[in-house]
Design goal:
This protein is of the alpha+beta class and 636 residues long. 34% of the residues lie in helices and 24% in strands. It is globular. It binds one RNA strand of 75 nucleotides through strand 6, strand 7, helix 7, helix 10 and helix 17.
RNA sequence: GCCGAUGUGGCUCAGUGGUAGAGUAGUUGAUUCGUAAUCAAUUGGUCGCGAGUUCAAAUCUCGCCAUCGGCUCCA
């Protein structure tokens, strides 16, 4: 609720780009949907007693189809493991190769009810019950309902493949409302794969039984499957948890507790650069900086409303001089208190206050995920207190700053959501109207496309969320801008209006990175650890070829350091090849090889991570080149 | 929190009831070397933690913790 600046969803969506042939989305949906049914059929045949349990659920409006494949939920006496996959895939291929027809049938609730009861499929029955009366009920058969024989199709079928598929009652069906392929043979038997196993609550409800879910991926052609799997491998290589350890950026330690991040020297160096950049950008954009405490009297959270609604996500309070103190789960109330500390005139507004505020939230153990979902994190938080008529221009200002900052980190592709008033909400109609149209006005002025999420706003005000697209096409939610009518009310915030009456200011919450931890994780994955020169914790490493040049190297390092470069000497006494290899593995952007030749001619043999051997440069040229690249925030 | 899996030197992993191993990193020595791995020696582990079974537990059982894949949650 209030405050927000949430840690957004922790996983990105992996969708491959760059197919030779862009897959047809409609066709893919049909393939995946049909694959899901084929998998269910295979599983039920192979593991008798397994019940299927799948339904249309929130977020999966198209049934058991995902961004990259499909899934099905089972309640089975068998506990599935990956070892079962080969067998299931084999059976699925048989079903596909048999080219069984897929037949849609409209059924009456009574008839089908009896049939399901006979089958002993309680989940199916429950799904049926939830279908409103009067709605058309359909089921889909795989294999002809009467004969179970293959469709007469122009696809040649090997009769030997048919034999194993005869399962009582010779065909398989499930309730389903969505369209399917016409026959199983339309799927390429080599363009799908089973991927993973997971627990999933029946109906997505954590009070209901836990089912076994099997995920698969499916495509039109084996080449597309291959491209997807390659993409997945690429994502794995970029995993910030792996790179964070390899590049000595950060750690999360069992001894300290889950979800608590240790920034090691190299990671901390990057964070320092990011923070420094962030502060400057905010000061330049008319913000002032705040620092506020990490704990405070619990009463604040009662006033703000957090305690009533979100106590579960707050760490327990601690006793201080017989009063309850709370470690802060968000910064907003502190900015409000700062505001309330003195009387403000309408002439002062808007006030823009920013803080890199570290907050702690209790996340359930199973939700923790590297840097993406943690228990202690630093928000790049800011609040704008303004007059109603200033909302649009302030939002536009925020959008401009957001664009500037994100593009400096290499993110130029966004997906934008505008969320409007939900059913349960506070605030007068006209204020909502004003705020929402102000958001739209700002988005239009920016010329950004956006999707409207009707009723998706917080109860205290409408919001804009922004997802950024990374180097391999994944989307990450970072920035959020929210108008808040609630906190000013609860804390009775005021300003003195022109007519000398007291009025409530509008409060805007916003974060651009979301949290530094999470954004750092995204940066690591976006750059695959190859940070651009301006962010690289070590920009240059000098590799001495022989002992004689070490003093010279030391002098060069002093010079470069004085010029502001992050530079160091390789002290290892290893051979050049080894030193280069080490620097490459550490993803150092620039290495300068220095031997007698270089020392005598006052030059550097430069090798960049991207460009390989760049040849000889003198000190001035090297500095100029690097300065330019740093200024451009690019790589060399 | 729930389902499933995993936890062995800093890292990657082998070791299925009988004396804890490899590679790599680290350290030391030799080599002074020209664009992705020089050679040799060597340090380092109460096998996540705690109980239990057993003559004997890294190995079997139970509990807890953490991590991973998901589910749920994400103010």
């Amino acid at each position: 609720m209030v405050s927000s600046l949430t840690q957004p969803q922790s996983r990105s969506i992996l969708v491959p780009r760059d197919f030779a042939n862009e897959p047809d989305i409609q066709q893919l949906a049909l393939i995946r949907h049909t694959c899901a049914h084929i998998m269910a059929m295979a599983v039920q045949k192979l593991y008798p007693g397994t019940k299927v349990a799948i339904l249309f659920q929130r977020g999966f409006a198209n049934g058991p189809v995902t961004e990259t494949g499909f899934f099905y939920d089972f309640d089975s006496p068998v506990t599935f493991t990956r070892d079962n996959f080969a067998k299931i895939v084999k059976e699925m291929r048989r079903i596909i190769k048999a080219n069984l027809p897929i037949v849609r049938e409209v059924v009456s609730k009574q008839d089908i009810q009896a049939e399901i009861a006979d089958l002993g499929e309680p989940y199916k029955l429950e799904i049926l019950d939830s279908i409103p009366d009067g709605e058309i009920i359909t089921r889909y058969f795989i294999g002809s309902p009467d004969t179970g024989k293959s469709t007469k199709s122009n696809v040649e079928v090997d009769p030997s493949l048919l034999a194993p598929i005869i399962i009582p009652p010779q065909s398989w069906w499930d309730l389903c409302a969505e369209p399917h392929l016409n026959s199983t043979g339309e799927i390429d038997p080599n363009s799908f794969a089973l991927e993973s196993l997971a627990g999933a609550y029946w109906r997505g409800d954590e009070t209901k039984p836990m089912l076994q879910r099997i995920y698969g991926t499916a495509w039109e052609t084996p080449a597309q499957l291959e491209a997807y799997l390659t993409q997945k491998e690429e994502a794995l290589k970029r995993d910030h948890r792996k790179l964070g350890r390899e590049l000595k950026l950060f750690s999360i330690q069992e001894d300290a507790g889950g979800g608590l991040v240790f920034w090691h020297p190299r990671g901390a160096k990057i964070r320092y650069i990011i923070e420094d950049y962030w502060r400057k950008a905010h000061l330049d954009s008319g913000y002032e900086l705040l620092y506020t405490p990490h704990i405070a009297n619990l009463d604040l959270w009662k006033t703000s409303g957090h305690f009533d609604f979100y106590q579960e996500s707050m760490f327990d309070s601690m006793d201080v001089d017989e009063k309850a103190y709370q470690i802060k789960p968000m910064n907003c109330p502190f900015h409000v208190l700062t505001y309330k500390h003195e009387l403000h005139s309408y002439r002062e507004l808007p006030l823009r206050w920013a803080e890199l505020g570290t907050v702690y939230r209790y996340e359930r153990s199973g939700a923790l995920h590297g840097l993406m979902r943690v228990r202690g994190f630093t928000q790049d938080d800011a609040h704008v207190f303004c007059l109603p008529e200033q909302i649009a221009s302030e939002i536009l200002r925020v959008l401009n700053l957001t664009e500037q900052i994100l593009s400096d980190f290499g993110f130029n592709d966004y997906e934008i959501n505008l969320s409007t008033r939900p059913e349960k909400s506070v605030g007068a109609d006209e204020v909502w109207e004003l705020a929402t149209s102000a958001l739209i006005e700002a988005l239009d002025a920016k010329g950004w496309n956006y999707t409207i999420d009707e009723g998706g706003g917080a109860f205290y005000g409408p919001k804009i969320d922004l997802k950024i697209k990374d180097a391999i096409g994944r989307l990450w939610q970072c920035s959020t801008i929210q108008v808040d009518f609630n906190l000013p009310e609860r804390f009775e915030m005021e300003y003195v209006a022109a007519d000398n009456t007291r009025k409530r200011p509008i409060m805007i919450h916003r974060a651009i990175f979301g949290s530094l931890e999470r954004f750092f994780g995204i940066l690591i994955e976006n750059y695959a650890g190859n940070f651009p020169l301006w962010l690289a914790p070590i920009q240059v490493r000098l590799l001495p070829v022989t002992e004689e040049v070490r003093d010279y190297c030391d002098r060069v390092i002093t010079t470069l350091k004085q010029a502001g470069f992050r530079v160091e000497l390789d002290h290892s006494h290893e051979r050049l090849g080894k030193m280069i290899r080490t620097a490459e593995l550490e993803k150092i952007p620039v290495v300068a090889v220095i031997g007698m030749k270089e020392m005598e001619t006052q030059t550097f043999s430069i090798r960049t991570r991207k460009g390989g051997d760049l040849g000889l440069l003198n000190l001035v040229d090297l500095q100029q080149k690097m300065q330019q690249v740093i200024q451009d925030k690019s790589s060399l």
